[in-house]
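[09:14] KT: can someone run the structure on this one? pasting the chain below
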Amino acid sequence: MPSLSTYGDWLVRMGSGGGVAAIRAVNDEVAETIHRRTGTSDYTLDVDATVIEAEKQEAEWTYKKVRGYQPMLGFLAETGLCLTHEFRKGNRPAQHGAVRFLKRCLKLCPKIRRLRSDSAFYQADVLAWCEEHDLGYTITADQDPAVKEVIKTVRDWTTLRDKDGKPTDREVGAAIHAMAKKGEPFRLVIQRWRDPQLPLFQKPDYCYYVIATNRDDRSPEEVIRFHNERGQAENEIKELKIGFRMEQMTSGDYRANAVWFGLGVLTYNLTLAEKLLFLDAEWKTKTVATLRRQLIETAGRLVRHGRGLVLRLAASWEKFQLYLRIRARLAAFV
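[09:31] RB: done, structure tokens below
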């Protein structure tokens, strides 16, 4: 293994020599190959940005009032695959280049049929692009003055029920809204609940959460449950940052860090491919830390016997059978 300084010098050389675009292109091709191999007929795209705190001299201030970087990532919800990513400086808003990012995602995976996002993608251009490409979307809406006026018009509030039909402490309503004079009207699904920290009858006495959607085929409750499932993307980002050590950057050079993050995404996707394509079903929900402990970190010895090589593993019979199944699947994959 090279020393840390040698590895750091290599990252800097890669970053300055076009490595940022190259590693992203490799990631895109690998992700495209993986999602084609899984055989899923259509996909839901979850897009989200994350803040990576870094006390580097060139790191910029983020909206969380810490210095660092703010990469944008797109995940396929059905598999957890990171379809593509974009490493960004900390002061680059998540709203920047939203349509361009979506175009790249759809190019890599034409089977995307639905989009979920937080309020960063609540933009007229994004909504119009989704309508043009027949994408159903649920996007957290900004509670700007126009949306607040729409909320005031809602009169038919009903109790929100969970997926088991049990009533919750929230109410739900719906309304029609449009952004200025651009784009088609869309539906707002609105949740409200009383703020327990405010005295009774003090105005405003409700908190609101608003979802913009063109999914007219779903009830407000179904829209809310579908949109809430985008929280899985946050779990995938957590796995990428903690499980693959992407919560820390290794260099003071921005482009070297972009290459480092791209390598982390590539490793994440290859590990996911291992779970999706080669392991048994019960392994697909396990984290990389569990994979390391239960599968990868197995003692073994390679010995010569009868003019051949034999791999002797310190593993149970069940795990040994799993290794044989993985070997057979790898052979069939190639």
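[09:33] KT: thanks! Residues 1-117+247-280 form one domain.
[09:34] RB: yep, looked fine to me
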